[in-house]
Amino acid sequence: GAGVSQSPRYKVAKRGQDVALRCDPISGHVSLFWYQQALGQGPEFLTYFQNEAQLDKSGLPSDRFFAERPEGSVSTLKIQRTQQEDSAVYLCASRRTREGGETQYFGPGTRLLVL
Amino acid sequence: AQSVTQLDSQVPVFEEAPVELRCNYSSSVSVYLFWYVQYPNQGLQLLLKYLSGSTLVESINGFEAEFNKSQTSFHLRKPSVHISDTAEYFCAVSEVRIKAAGNKLTFGGGTRVLVKP
Q1: Distance of alpha carbon A85 from alpha carbon A28, whole angstroms
Q2: Which of A77, B15, B63, B87 could form a disulfide with B59 if both were Cys (CB 3.0 to 4.6 A apart)?
């Protein structure tokens, strides 16, 4: 079956530009996560959705970062006025239920480079 | 809050030799434990996980990890590696909570395994 997909796979943005990153989770998955992975580091949590509700946004680094999942399926992570420190791989993961022991399935990531 | 430490950033190993990747965690509550693998140019894939019960868990491709609560460790081992095991390995934890806003994963910094012929 289809896994988690993300688009675009690569994005180059000029500093100050707004970007939008899309995540298509596995169909029917209740939970959706966004993570940020800087070069040479492990992924770090950004935000969590349960269906359409954003229940945890404690990892968003600034108010320039905004995420939504309006119909409880596709999610978009938006970064306004991008800065060089935003350069990273942005990973989306989905999970079938709310249960913490269930597996999170990751997409291939969007590699963002801010010049 | 929890944290994860992977003590080795890189581990070179010869084909058919054993390998151990170390993972230690810190948490004030009980945790679930995971190992994810990232092959070159691919996304993160679950390798194995510990939820409860037997402290030794195994994957289908020969890896195993043992949960040690007293040492707060979850080291990953394979008795004989193949070239195809070249990848980056990430240890991760999530808190066991009844009311949880997501049970987010907290990852270590990763260990890059390079299997040499």
Answers
A1: 34
A2: B63
- Beta-carbon contacts of B43 under 8 Å, excluding residues fewer than 6 positions away, are A4, A91, A106, A107, A108, A109
Strand partners, B57: B65
| Å between A19 CA and nearest CA of chain B | 22
**Residue A50 to residue B102, Cβ atoms within 8 A:** yes
Q: Which of A31, A98, A109 sits opposite B43 (nearest CB)?
A: A109
Min Cα distance A49 → chain B (Å) is 8
Q: What tokens were used for B75?
A: 């080291």
* Contact between residue A108 and residue A93 where contact means Cβ atoms under 8 Å apart: no
Distance CA A72, CA A53 (A): 8
- State residue B101's pLDDT score: 62
Which pLDDT tens digit goes with each residue over A29-82?
A: 999 999 999 998 999 999 999 999 999 999 999 999 999 999 999 999 999 999
Least Cα distance to A107 among A20, A10, A21, A24 occurs for A24
